[in-house]
Write a structure and sequence with these properties.
Shape: globular
Number of strands: 0
Radius of gyration: 12 Å
Structural class: mainly alpha
Number of helices: 5
Order of helices and strands: HHHHH
Number of domains: 1
């Protein structure tokens, strides 16, 4: 949940997104995806985890990430 809060804080508006460095943003996204995956493996109906993954995927729009999400 903490990773999700940090990610939402950095993406609240375009000003915050531009202030955050790309390497820290990438690290934050990776941590969010890792933790949300773990939560979903424990409880597949945890809506916040699904929504956090959807938020990251919608920002990235990477075919590789979309395919990994479909496999998951």
């Amino acid at each position: 949940m903490e990773e999700y809060k940090y990610y939402k804080l950095h993406h609240r508006d375009d000003k915050n997104a531009s202030i955050c460095s790309s390497s820290s943003l990438l690290n934050l996204e990776n941590e969010l995806m890792k933790h949300s995956r773990t939560l979903l493996l424990l409880s597949c109906d945890f809506g916040t985890s699904w929504n956090s993954r959807k938020l990251v995927l919608s920002k990235k729009q990477s075919l590789f990430m979309f395919m990994n999400e479909l496999i998951f």
